[in-house]
Every structure is written in C-alpha cells, then in structure tokens.
Amino acid sequence: MDFDKLVDVYEELEKTSSGNQMREILSDFFKTVPKDDIALVSYLTLGQISSEFESAVLGLAEKTVLKAIASAGAISIKKVKEIMHSKGDVGLTAEKVLQKKPQTLIPIGKLTIHDLFDTLHKIVKLSGTGSQDKKTQLLVSVLQKASSKGAKYLSRIVLGTLRMGAGDMTVIDSLAIAFTGEKKNKEHLERAYNICPDVGVIAETLARDGLKGLEKIQVHVSRPIKMMLAQRVKEWEEVVKKIPGTLAAEGKYDGERVQAHKTKSGEIMLFSRRLENITDQFPDLVEYIQKQINAKEFIIEAEILAIDKEGKHLPFQTLMQRRRKYDIEEYIKKIPVQAKIFELLYLDGKSYLNESYKERIKQIEKIVKKGKHLTTADRIITDDVEELKKFFSEMLDDKQEGIMIKSLEGVYQAGTRGWNWIKWKKDYSQDMIDTFDLVVIGAFYGRGKRHGTYGALLCATYNTKNDTFETICKLGTGLTDEMLASLPGKLDGDKVKIKPARVIAKKEMEPDVWFTPTIIVEVLAAEITKSPFHSCASGLALRFPRFLHFRDDKKAEQATTSEEVKDMFEK
Ligand code: ATP
After folding, report:
1. Where are the domains of the chain?
2. Do domains 229-428 and 434-570 have the same CATH topology?
3. Cα separation of 339 and 332, whole Å?
C-alpha cells in the first residue's frame, strides 16, 4: 500500500476535533488496508513503528532530520534552517523543501508503507560509530520517495511529534467497526488487548482470523500483560461486603510497580506500569531475580522500593532518581532497591491468570528465595476486621500508603479495576478524599507574578467507555514559581492548534493552549462537586485541587477514570 493513502487519512484526522468522526475516518480506512499492512498501519496511526513496549528508538535528533531534508531536496542546510525558522515546524519545513524535487536519472518510485517500515526499523538497529551518517542516508532515501505531504508526516513520525490524537483504544474501536461491523464487539478486542497490549497483533489477528482468532491469543512471555488494578471503598464495612469471609491483605507499598518476565532462554525483562521496557534501569534487580527465583520461565509482579543501608524503605521520590539513562551503576550503589513480589501470572508453561490468588501466592512462596533486595509482600490472611486494622497501622508505621485487600478466590483480572483487589489508604482513614491522577489537556496564561508562563493547567479524567478525556478542574495551587517556570519546557512539546479530538470540554473551559493528552499530574482535592463548567461524568469537578507531583510512570489512558469519580461522588 502506498504511504500516500495513509497521508490522506492523516490530513483528515488533523482537521477533526471529534472523537466519533475520528473513529469513522479510521474504520473506513482500515477496511481498505490489505491484511499484510494492517499491523503497520495501526502502529503508524499512533505515530509509532512498533508496539510501545518494544521500545523501537530511532535516535534521530531534529538536527539530523533537517540535514536529511536538505540532502533529499538538494538544497543547502543553511536554506533549510531559514525555512525552519519561519515555519517553526520540521514537518512543514520538509513539505516546503520537497515541493520541488530534484530530478534523478533513474525514477525512484513511490514510497510504500512496507518500504517505510523496513527503512525505519533498519535505522533503529544502527548504533555505534558512523551510525548517525548511515541513519541520515536511510532517512534521505525515504524522504526522496515520499510526496511533499508525505515528507511532512514522515518527519514528524521520526521525531515522535505526530500528534493525531488517537490512542490505542481509538484504534481498537475502529478495528472493531471495520472488521466486525459493530462497535459493541470491541469488548472482544479489549479482552484480547488486555493480555496482548499490541495493537498491531490485534489488528492482524482480527483481519486474518476474525474474532475466533482473537480468542486464541495467549499469554506470551516477553510481551507484557496489562496490569490489574484495585477498587476503592469508603468504609471498612464495604470491604467485608465485597470480599466476605477470609481474605488476604498485603502492604500497599509506595514504590514503582514492575512486571518481570523470564524467558525460557533465561533472559529477564522488566516492564513498567505503562508497559515500557525498563530492564536497563535496574540491572541490580535483574540479577536478584535471576539468582533468587527458582523457575525456568515466569511472569511475576512486584513493587520496587528504594531502601537505605539498614533496609528501611525510603519515599517514592527517592526511587524516582533511579529513572535514568546514565550513571546507572553509580545510582545502584547510591539508591539500592528492594522488590516486594505480590503476583505470579505465568510459571513454567502455564498461565496463572485464571488460577485463584490463593494458588498464585502458594507458587510464589515456593519459588522465591527471600533476601534483602528481593522478597515477597508482607501478608496476613484473616476474617477479623480488627486484625486487618492492626495490619493497616503497622503498614503506616512502615511509611507505606496503606494496604491492599485481596480475595483469596479471585483471579487476575488483566487490565481491569475489579473487586478482587481493594485498596485502603491512609488518606481515607483521615477522612480526606483520595488523590487523583489527571491528564493535562490545556493551560491558561498566568497574570501578574505568573505573567510569561502558565498560571493554571486544565486537567481531565479518562472516560473508558467513550475513549474521551473529560475536564474536571483548573489547577494552579501547589505549583511553585520554579515549577511554573518549567512548565512550558515540560508541556509545549504536546501543544496542538485545535482541541484534540478525544477531549470533551465546555466552552467556558476553553484554555489558551491545548495539549495532546500525555502528561499526568497527581492532585489532592477536598471535595467532588457538581459543576456546569466541567464535562467529567456529565458535570463533576474537584474543589480546591492541589498539585502533588507529576506521575511520569503513567500514560494518559491510565488517568483516574470519569467512572471512578462518579462512583466516589455517589458514595
Ligand atoms: P495509586 O496511584 O494508588 O498507585 P493506581 O491507580 O496506580 O493507584 P491502584 O489500582 O489504585 O493503582 O493500586 C494498585 C497499585 O498499588 C499498583 O499499581 C502497585 O503499584 C501498587 N501496589 C503496592 N503494593 C501492592 C500490592 N501488595 N499489591 C498490588 N499492588 C500494589
């Protein structure tokens, strides 16, 4: 398939600010895509060249892309920089430069989706000395073949700035409509996506083998599984109602969740909450897992905590310093970690997703050799609320967030916030409302002291049913002057000219600047109230929201959902 077919779709998507229209455009297009191309097209719709967890890094800087544009257009880099200066965007620069292509002796032909893919994956694989030049040459070869409009989007894809506003769920919905004729079939796709969060695999399986094919998708070690989440309750009594009889409770540790995979060949891979491959960040943890888990092939989950020399737990913020690309060895010594294993999803050829929690922890206890840096979650099994409360106090004394209450018979509900897990945090016991993870979708310019930067952020929840982002508050409190000054640097890469298609906002809440939903902030609020100005759950807002910190471990679709807010409001 010609890349230009996809380029026409990009053009349409760029103009729409309606989520439904976006799904219509995509599903109409998917119907016309050959089966061999559907996986590639699904990734490219999201501006990616593979699933997110495969971390295909092109490693191309703006400077390199401009150099490639100059070479493809046979004009000087000086001239390209001038055009870039007036256009302010690499994509528009490429379009302008390549409007008049230099004549070649042999016609180069049109750029196909397969061509583009092969070339970009070749670029990913290049490293070491001389690789930048080779990367540039490969990029020149596809830019020469692309149309001028194609070059515009191609430049944005390679720089990771193609912001079409579609998310994984938008693609899933559109695939359901295109290949099954009905959006309601998206449930089947979602089920498959929860154990195989790779839109390319889902698209190709559906196109080739239909819904029956999707049912056959299995857990695959080295491909992350969407993580199970916990429900919240307002009163202890509700816990007992939801999980009657004997139950388990574990510490709710304030660290970073990790899903660790060990393949048959002995390779260990670590995936974050947003399913990114973070193996390189924790070589120490890889070693502990290798040495202390006695099994050939498995998938486990744990919370990683920073610890001091005595093994005492340190706050989440300390652990965040381990999120780095450089000086890793130095930081292993500076900030040692401990992983508390709490889940087993797969073991030596068998999926444990549908086994009871009781069975899963029995296996964990069998295979883990406990030590200072790798151990299992603290746990009690009880039917006595008083004992539960005592355990909760102990966890608070250990500076943890609270406890996780788990149904002994419960299965692992991948990608779901089900009732088999209930969280109980210290904020609830102090009668404070919970914290919210909100996605930043816009900003208002500051006045007075805040002139010249953003004074407040427009924040939204995620509506899982409609795949939309709904506004819930304007956030200005809790942001220091220093933080405010740094906001443009953090947010402006996501700036877009029109309201992103999946955002639902009332006229009264129109911000000065719109952002593609990307950045998550954790916010504390005093109350949820009804509001005619916000779109969350048809009119709910947060009162007195206060910024706590950025949650770089979450992506937009992992924000607090509108359904959760509605639930909390009703309670
Ligand atoms: P939060 O912001 O409280 O982490 P969340 O929406 O990310 O909320 P929840 O489903 O509310 O996730 O809570 C589960 C999270 O708690 C997990 O993602 C994990 O990081 C953490 N956690 C800590 N201890 C445990 C445990 N023993 N069992 C499961 N999850 C745990």
Report:
1. 47-159, 229-428, 434-570
2. no
3. 14
pLDDT tens profile 310-364: 999 998 889 999 988 899 999 999 999 999 999 999 999 999 999 999 999 999 9
What spacing in Å lies between the alpha carbon of 482 and ligand 1's midpoint?
A: 30
The superfamily (CATH) of domain 434-570 is Nucleic acid-binding proteins (2.40.50.140)
* DSSP state letter for 146: S
CB 342 less than 6 A from any atom of ligand 1: yes
Evaluate: CB of 494 within 6 angstroms of ligand 1: no
| CATH fit for domain 47-159, picks 2.60.300.12, 3.30.1490.20, 3.30.210.10, 1.10.3260.10 | 1.10.3260.10
pTM equals 0.89
Which of ligand 1's atoms lies nearest the C-alpha of 257?
A: 20
Cα dist from 165 to 9, 30, 242, whole Å: 13, 17, 38
Residue 431 has pLDDT above 90, yes or no: no
Known catalytic residue at 15: no
474 CB under 6 A from ligand 1? no
pLDDT tens figures, 150-168: 999 999 999 999 989 899 9
Residue 4 pLDDT grade (very low, low, confident, very high; cuts 50, 70, 90) = very high
Q: Are 202 and 40 in contact (CB under 8 A)?
A: no
For ligand 1, is residue 551 a contact (CB within 6 Å)? Answer: no
Query: Does residue 207 contact residue 38 with C-beta atoms inside 8 Å?
Result: yes
Q: Which of 172, 160, 231, 235 is nearest to 203 (CA)?
A: 172
Active-site pick, 101, 145, 149, 252: 252
- Contact status, residue 271 vs residue 312, Cβ threshold 8 Å: no
Could you say which architecture CATH assigns to the domain 229-428? Answer: 2-Layer Sandwich (3.30)
